[in-house]
Amino acid sequence: MKVLVINGSPKGKDSITFQTVRFLQRKFPKDDFEIIHAGAQIALWERDMSSLKEAVESARIILFAYPVYTFMAPSQLHRFITRMKEQDIDFSGKYALQITTSKRFYDVTAHRYIEENCKDMGMRVLRGFSADMNDLLTKEGQLQVITYWNYVKHIIEQEASPFEEETDDTPFNQKNGKHRIIIVTDCSEKNERLRRMIIDFRKAFPYESHVVNLRKFAFRGGCMGCFHCASDGECVYKDGFDELLRGKIQRADSIVYAFSIKDHSMGTVFKTYDDRQFCNGHRTVTMGKPTAYLIDGEFSQEKNLQMILEARSQVGGNFLAGIATNEGVGADSTKTCADKLAYALTHRIRVNRNFYGVGGMKIFRDLIFEMQGMMRADHKFYKAHHLYDFPQKKAGTILFMKLVGLLLRMPQSRAQMQAKMTEGMLAPYERVIRGKQLGD
Predict the structure, then answer these.
(1) Hey, which of 4, 152, 356, 359 has its CA 20 to 30 A from 172?
(2) With 60 as the cut, is the pLDDT of residue 232 above it?
């Protein structure tokens, strides 16, 4: 697979982000990576973009790799994208991806910037990969980027294969029982469009699926914010919602949500369902389980709802495998969504957290630690899952940074350190790329 990498870092080949690209080159030798150091060589590219057309025409994937600078991509990459859009180049049908490194502070806005510009150029945008600057130095981080690349290749290969009409007449409850999912919906009897989406999804999905229709559940009311559940997780209402949620829905390997857009939201019934889940407090009890959405309506126009769905998956630790809508062109079909979710389940894909996930969990972490006396169930959960990851505990790192800061304040050592700093920063990544930390 031919990949055109547009390296947007002003540091060029010495960029920390670019080391992830080098890592992928080594792990996927059959993929052909062509590199453009757009950020470091922007002055040259501004004068002459003639070689870009041939590079784009031969590529199947356009991969943007860059560090996040103040909410967005670096200014050098901005300038390159502006020049890209001025060229007489056909980008339509190319897959657009991005890999970023940062401390995940508003990486989401940087990703949106790239996505929107790629859509302007007619590219097919796939979800990008957001990493912490040091993720590649850990085994978990290395496995995450390998999993991401395999997932991307699977999606592209599936979309390239000819569509086969669904002919499987096997009843839903007789499908492969290796995984079991729950489809939570508020579909009314008159909502034929949403009902059709659910049926089509279940036909295409290879594993066992069951439907929970919230309209058939007799909620006694919405969450009252009484904190009755704060200590032991038991809701003040005795309508059986706890049993439905914990005994059936959360026991599934994955939860799929199916709804029609109402008043720029999932609707009143779903909001009641969401609020009543506060009986779980701030405990991410379904983390690690992928999720998907079946949406009836013009989801592409609902920017706030898009953010909500991504953020709830991120904070919950649920890989967002797919979102199917019935908008038509440019939207995932129910078959595509079913395939993505099945792949995520089979390969145990975990969420790669961005600003929403990291920022949200840090807020909850601090809140629960402060209120542990009242929110005892949450406190116990956070301790058990090692979610109290306070930076104050990293005494060695703090001491080392103080030493570096002291040396940088000394004129005689500053010049020597700056000359060696890039080499020192890249050294551990070189060991990873050469396979010293992760076996082949």
Answers:
(1) 152
(2) yes
